[in-house]
Amino acid sequence: MIEKPDAPAARRNCDAILAVLRDVLGRSTSLLEIGSGTGQHAVYFGHALPALRWQTSDRSENHAGILAWVNEASLDNVVAPLDVDVLRRDRVDGRYDAVFSANTAHIMSYQAVVCMFRLVGTVLNEGGVFCLYGPFNVNGEFTSASNERFNESLKLQNPEMGIRDLADLNGLAAANGLSESRRYAMPANNMLIVWRGLGDDDGYA
């Protein structure tokens, strides 16, 4: 049996993220997580939000770790991962009331971020929401000195990584039928950005 992977950041940020998800998801009943990573978020949020069907997804090399968490938790509403690499897959079967992704945009290439927004645009139900958590720049500026240092460390690992500017992300959102709904300030100089799909404002959130 594979040992469950553990991401300390996931343990630190889960309560803050959950508070926002409770506020944002409203009547949502189905959610696709892009980049489930270790699987910790899926299990934590799935346990706290039992009415929400949480579909995990990631590249195949991360599935064993995700399944270690999902299988141990044995939650009816948390589903085994789909094989999704946004650079190679521009759609998945089914549609969802919400999409969630955490700490992905800054470790992907920018082209992968473009592809992620395109995928979100294809799977969201009318009026659905896309929740993206992580560090972001605002108006071309870092929001903290620590984020600037973090960005430098990312670039040393891979020049295609980096903290993304919200103006660029809003452009990608608009190109895929989404508009920014709200920004939530989060611990450790992170944010959770919520985009809403076109449709009835009395929709899911």
What would you note in describing this structure?
With 205 residues, the protein is of the alpha/beta class. The chain has one domain: Vaccinia Virus protein VP39 (Rossmann fold), CATH 3.40.50. The protein contains 6 helices and 9 strands, in the order αβαβαββαββαβαββ. The chain has helices spanning 8-25, 40-48, 63-73, 110-123, 145-157, 166-175, and strands at 30-33, 53-58, 78-83, 96-102, 124-134, 136-137, 164-165, 178-186, 190-197. The strands form 2 sheets. A 7-stranded mixed sheet has the order 3-2-1-4-5-9-8, sandwiched between helices. The chain has a two-stranded parallel sheet with strand order 6-7. A hairpin with a 3-residue loop joins strand 8 and strand 9 (190-197). The N and C termini lie far apart (39 Å). Mean pLDDT is 94; it is low at 201-205.
Provide the descriptors you would attach to this structure in a database record.
seven-stranded mixed β-sheet; 205 residues; two-stranded parallel ribbon; 27% strand; alpha/beta; Rossmann fold
